[in-house]
């Protein structure tokens, strides 16, 4: 965000809706992308890697 502030200082200060500026809206969008990507990663890990870990654990327990 700091690089955007240096390059587009006037654009980030543009008001979008009421007191909300373009920079604040962009920061909010960044937060949403962060949460969605973390949830997507967690779901992908649970469906792929956890199954492999359970398979390895069950093979070890059988020995």
Give the overall silhouette: rod-shaped
Head-to-tail CA distance between termini? 53 Å
Q: Pairing-aware structural class of the strands and helices?
A: mainly alpha
Q: What topology, given as strand order, has the largest sheet?
A: 1-2
Domain count, please report it. 1
Mind describing the biggest β-sheet? 2 strands, antiparallel
Count of beta strands = 2
Task: State which percent range the strand residues make up.
Answer: 5-15%
Number of helices: 3
Mean pLDDT: 83
Low-confidence stretches: none
- Range of helix content: over 70%
Structure description:
The chain is mostly helical and 63 residues long. The protein has one domain. It is built from three helices and two strands, in the order ααββα. The protein has a two-stranded antiparallel sheet with strand order 1-2. The model has no long low-confidence stretch (mean pLDDT 83).
Outline the secondary-structure elements:
Layout: H1 2-7, H2 9-12, E1 15-17, E2 20-21, H3 22-62
Antiparallel strand pairs: 1-2
Main features:
3 helices, two-stranded antiparallel ribbon, 8% strand
């Amino acid at each position: 965000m700091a690089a955007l502030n240096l390059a587009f200082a006037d654009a980030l200060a543009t008001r979008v809706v009421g007191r909300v500026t373009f920079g604040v809206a962009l920061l909010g969008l960044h937060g949403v992308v962060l949460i969605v990507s973390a949830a997507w990663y967690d779901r992908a890990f649970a469906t792929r890697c956890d199954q492999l870990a359970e398979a390895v654990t069950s093979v070890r327990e059988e020995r």
